Amino acid sequence: MYLTRTFINPRRRGATAFLDAPQKVHAAVLQSFPTDPPTKGSDGPRVLWRLDRDDPRRPVLWIVSPDRPDLHHVVDPYGWPAADSPFESREYKTLLDELADGQRWAFRVTLNPARARFDETRGRSVITPVVDPAEQVGWLVERTPKWGFAVPRTEGAGPAVEIRDGRRLRFRRGRGQPPVTLHTAMFQGLLEVTDAERLRQAMTSGVGRARGYGCGLLSLTRVR
């Protein structure tokens, strides 16, 4: 497994449109590999990606993948092709092997918070977005056990997690296709490992819905 990072230059022609079109980013990521990588429907390691926009001058595209990607086709039109390292990949195995129950890590993940509810008019369950920030945090905390971790509580302040970026994305998967609306939230906080093997699986196969559109890539950093 590899973790890859490249920076996008929003001042380049077409870069903003690229960043705002999840289907285009998804296609570009898949084109980074010589053979079709595992994606939807795969229970094992697959290709995941995420855009971090903390610095609007240098959005970051992260990719987790079984194989090392070649991102020149992204860097040349949208990034910094003249940089010493226009994109960087490092092996993920060292971090994955280090995970153990009881550890605490800082985490970040973009998710598509949604719940299934029964629609009596349609006679079936429908997926509805969770858009209230407090409800989104509760939604996340409910689901973390199956992903191998828990979000500890801070004294007097609730779960140790915050929402850094919330977006409503609307796009078409292709010409003639109906529009897709996606509500996303970027969660950042502290986690405690409760099942290291489940956490490894979550980090290599992704968590939640809409993994093809920039959701589900769970990344960890050491607690400072």
From TrEMBL:
<protein>
    <submittedName>
        <fullName>Type I-E CRISPR-associated protein Cas6/Cse3/CasE</fullName>
    </submittedName>
</protein>
<dbReference type="Pfam" id="PF08798">
    <property type="entry name" value="CRISPR_assoc"/>
</dbReference>
<dbReference type="InterPro" id="IPR010179">
    <property type="entry name" value="CRISPR-assoc_prot_Cse3"/>
</dbReference>
